[in-house]
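Re: weekly structure request thread

Next one in the queue (334 aa):
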Amino acid sequence: MRDRAARTRTGLTAKHQPASLEQDTRVRVDLAHLRGFEGKARSLRFLPAQPAGSVLNGRHASRLRGRGLNFEELRGYLPGDDPRTIDWKVTARTGKAHVRVYSEERDRPVLLVVDQRMTMFFGTRLNMKSVTAAEAAALTAFRVLDQGDRVGGLVFGDDYVAEVRPKRSQTARDQFLSTLVKANQELSANNPGTEDPQTLNRVLGMVARAAPRNHLVVVFSDFDGIDRSSERLVGQISRHNDLILCPVTDPISSEIPKDLKVVVSDGDLQVELDTTSKDTHARLSEFATGRLAGVLLWQHKFGVPVMPLSSGEDTVTQIRHLTGLAPQNRRSRR
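Done, posted below.
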């Protein structure tokens, strides 16, 4: 949709946007807004010990395994050693029992994968999905660094992927937040389309290479474009890492009105949707709920924790609830 008249009809021209839109953190975040989540993150935990009601707790279908183990030495077997640590190949070769000694890692690398594609630039009630993903990622970044882990991540849009290698430093955390803010602020309904837009599968492939084992990987996305290859990659990543999936949805995905007539656009093309048609309403409902159903299937198949987030609710409140924490007395948001 390149003609100005069409842009005006769909409200995409600048003169129809409020002057304060650029400063509205429900639409786009800034660094000060994300920094405001530091204090709110202190009560969260991304370690194996979880509150009873947390989706990351062992009572549920999945749990966090925690930090990995570092190999320290191979030595002779001593009375009291755990027989499970015996290295049978070395024992057979030398004729004497040997055990492998490990120590728990002092920290672990945490990779935060944040989707900032144009499919995330949508919201009908409180936030854009892109904002909810950014807020949740900021909360996680503050908490994992505070608990002694290394923080980094991959932030991706339709035509790029920005990588921040995990480090245990405020500099790495701030670099990640700045990268996230830049990606979020570039989202606009006026953005031109991309001939070969970034797919989630490409990014998951990069994650598989960047996190071969003993990482905590947290993915914040609407999971647009998932398929059987996505399932294979999720299985590969979760096999040797802790993986948490945070599907971000908008309330309309589960509450599509039956009397809605609206023109929607991606900034280049437009289409009119009429949900008074039973067939159209059914197709939209099936499409909107299909992604979340696919992600929930991975939860059962791979034992991967899933923390579904809605752009229509306060981000902090949702994460506290999902991790089994009591609601705060005051509103967590602004």
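The beta strands are 69-76, 98-104, 109-115, 150-156, 161-167, 216-221, 242-249, 261-265, 270-274, 309-310. The chain is about 35% helix and 20% strand.
Next request, please.
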